[in-house]
Amino acid sequence: MTDTTTRAVATRMPERMHADRETIDAILDEALFCHLSYVVDGEPRLIPTMHVRIGDALYLHGSTGSRPLRMAREGLPVCVAVTIADGLVFSKAQFHHSMNYRSVIAHGIARVVTDETLKQEFLSRLVDRIATGRTNDCRPPTRKEYASTTLLELPLTEVAAKIRNGPPSEEPEDENLPYWNGILPLHTVAGEPISLEPKVPIPSYVKSWSPAQAGDGRPDVGRSGARS
Amino acid sequence: MTDTTTRAVATRMPERMHADRETIDAILDEALFCHLSYVVDGEPRLIPTMHVRIGDALYLHGSTGSRPLRMAREGLPVCVAVTIADGLVFSKAQFHHSMNYRSVIAHGIARVVTDETLKQEFLSRLVDRIATGRTNDCRPPTRKEYASTTLLELPLTEVAAKIRNGPPSEEPEDENLPYWNGILPLHTVAGEPISLEPKVPIPSYVKSWSPAQAGDGRPDVGRSGARS
């Protein structure tokens, strides 16, 4: 029997671990995609996919024919990770170079969702995560499209965030070495939108896009769109 | 026995798969971090870590005490994925919204590297991937630092890239709907460097940083730094 407490809590760098759901949810809601891991014949598999958090569960997008989603009909042990790179960390010592990041890792049993209302909410939120408000500015799914969307649900019961933040580690004896040290922040930004339909003006939610605005896809929560 | 051909080749969207090493290597060399998956007691685990490709193998960074690295002394079945988000894809239909991305998934048996020359090359390249040329502008590792670096080697024998590129899918009957469709390109960019040592000027490789320049960390390959 696995000791589940050891799955979500890292044994290395415990000071980087965060178990509070507010921190965890903010990372899950900002990350635009995740990696889903599962086991086939004792061997690990990984796929990138898009996710939406709704309350206390993570919902993962798939197509009805994909292997993990077929396997998940009876409950599939999975591990899901999201990682956001926040900065490159330059130490005076080669050895202490690092990256600032925010990641979340969730373990549990994923199950296929068949409830159509939940599928509707998932697809709306997924599209509103791409850009807030987009759901109301495109054609809604047909019943056939809902039917061909398979959805995995993973309860967020065994989940933790791991965050590296702040300055580089330095050895005291390196203090006076003549090398620059510091942090180079990294950001995800949008370029110029590419319009396929030049007759239709580019919507404001496309022009003003930012990763934090993508958020949890609730157009009614009054997000400012600004990134702190 | 697992049919290994089914591990690296996706059963869904085969038109998105690319097996040529030039395509695969470019994605591995641009991605700043990866996700490493392995199995413990039949259950999947995932950790984000940094990688360097050297020739036909992927090298993954760890600390001597970390679980997968201890397990890998005798060879650990792993799956490694990198994913770069290239753009948000807006379709006239909610259902066809998507993301443009480039990902690589590699399967195989990872082993711990003990060769010190290879560890030296790994650490140099890792730091030069953070910023080209940095290795020659910081303190080299000590023997103790090399000793506390554990390195996993994964031969790139079973590896494939999956790429989504180009415009959204549209249904013919949606053609005249009054919704904007197109692509919003995404880029990783650097913000203003944060200096801890204001007496030392910010190096040019920090000021001119770009993800493509981070590349494979070889300062001698004459990369332009421009992203195509």
Write the layout of secondary structure elements.
2 copies of one chain form a homodimer.
Chain A: H1 5-8, E1 17-18, H2 21-30, E2 34-40, E3 43-49, E4 51-54, E5 57-63, H3 67-71, E6 76-90, E7 98-113, H4 116-130, H5 143-147, E8 149-155, E9 158-164, E10 182-190, E11 194-195, H6 204-207, H7 211-214
Antiparallel strand pairs in A: 1-9, 2-3, 2-6, 4-5, 5-8, 6-7, 6-10, 7-8, 7-9
Notes on the structure:
The structure is a homodimer of 228-residue chains. Chain A is an alpha+beta fold. Chain A has a single domain, classed as Pnp Oxidase, Chain A, CATH 2.30.110.10. Chain A has helices at residues 5-8, 21-30, 67-71, 116-130, 143-147, 204-207, 211-214, and strands at 17-18, 34-40, 43-49, 51-54, 57-63, 76-90, 98-113, 149-155, 158-164, 182-190, 194-195. In chain A, strands 1, 2, 3, 4, 5, 6, 7, 8, 9 and 10 form a ten-stranded antiparallel β-sheet that branches. In chain A, a hairpin with a 2-residue loop joins strand 2 (34-40) and strand 3. The longest helix of chain A has 15 residues, at 116-130. Chain A is globular. The first copy, chain A, starts with a helix and ends in a 14-residue tail after the last helix. Chains A and B meet through strand 2, strand 3, strand 6, strand 7 and helix 4 of A and strand 2, strand 3, strand 6, strand 7 and helix 4 of B.
